[in-house]
Amino acid sequence: MTGEFEGIAEQFYADMTAGALKPHYHGGRADLATSPVPAWELFDNEHALIGVAQTSRGCPFECNFCDVIQYVGRVQRHKTNDQVVAEVQKLYDLGYNNIQVADDNFTVYRRRATSLLEALSAWNGRDGRDFVMFGTQISIDIANDDKMLALCADAGFTSLFIGIESVNQESLKASGKRQNLVSDMSARVANVVRHGIDVTAALMVGFDPDTLDIFEQQYDFGMELPVAAFKISVLSAPIATPLYADMERTGRLAPIDGNIFPSAELSTNILPAQMTRDQLYVGTRWLISRLFHPQAFLHRIDHACRILEPNPLFARAQFYNPPARTLSSRLFLRMMRDLARADPEIAEALKYVSNRMRERPDIAFSLQIMLQNWLLSLSGHVRRGSYDPDWSKLRQPPLSAASTARAA
């Protein structure tokens, strides 16, 4: 089966029911305006923390390491506002209070994004409904558009994922990330946060222009940002991307465990230009450990407290907290308790943020979101072994350990 499923679903299920499946089905690219509302009532919703809705597919940008345009195209396709509202209403009815909008670039077409945000703002926290939180992925070019950011906040977009990638301008040029070639990146991120929106900043290392200094450069840059969490990854080359073709042509594709997707567990399928793969692994693990250390997190929280403005959504409605969220809330509290018991510095960070929330009730909900995002990300790194509390105290990456770190 190739392509997207919506357009061939009816025929496929009919053939399956009749016991007459064809050897191959090709769905092409679906017309999202005719896409049905997903039957989430068939899913095990009690064990899910976040609901998912998709409003568009495709991205017009040309980042050479991204495979989005290879499988969903450069021309973005959209669902109607009514479709999207119907989807989030169903998730609301099933008890979700946190919904991820799984678009590759939610705001790239401003007119359409504005219209949808207005529709979601008219739905969220109104007509007797409590409000839910939305999150999605955007590009940094929205960060100077105060009108769009205000709309995002009013519609309930409390968290945004932004692919910043690198402080190294040459790396951005090499990867085709032209939209990030700005001189005021820190100020732009701060402007998003100022509107009451938490940012997860994606940072990537291992581009060809990156030297061994990149890890400390990325750390220094990350500490300038008023954000709770980062998505830190190593450069890898998914199949069908321009980067993959370049690496294949120049003989720089590297073997990788077939059970590990490139960039997962800090693995890469390319040979870096100015460091070994072991040095890339050690440097990235150090970067994660440094940025996620409790004291580093609190430094960035203090920065956020200085600029955060109250989100208007929090004043017009209460947060939706139905009985359906009881299990996921209990599991989150257990995770938080386990982290605090294992590391006294994490426990102190929890107390510190709680005190800041009491001091600043006008931004307390935003601080709570930032705390939760940090804890969820940190928990994942602890579980995977990519966070090392000892390394988090080192001022430089222990690159001399490059040959033994993986084995340890």
How do you describe this structure in short?
The protein is built from 15 helices and eight strands. The protein has 408 residues and is α/β, with parallel strands linked by helices.
Based on the model shown, name its key terms:
408 residues; two-stranded antiparallel sheet; 10% strand; 8 strands; 42% helix
CATH superfamily: tm_1862 like domain
User: By helix and strand content, what is the structural category?
Assistant: alpha/beta
Major sheet, described briefly?
A: 6 strands, parallel
Q: Please tell me the overall pLDDT.
A: 93
Instruction: Measure the end-to-end span.
Output: 41 Å
Order of neighbouring strands in the sheet with most strands: 1-4-5-6-7-8
Instruction: Name the CATH architecture.
Output: Alpha-Beta Horseshoe
Radius of gyration: 22 Å
**CATH topology term:** pyruvate-formate lyase- activating enzyme
Query: Using DSSP, what is the number of strands?
Result: 8
Helix count equals 15
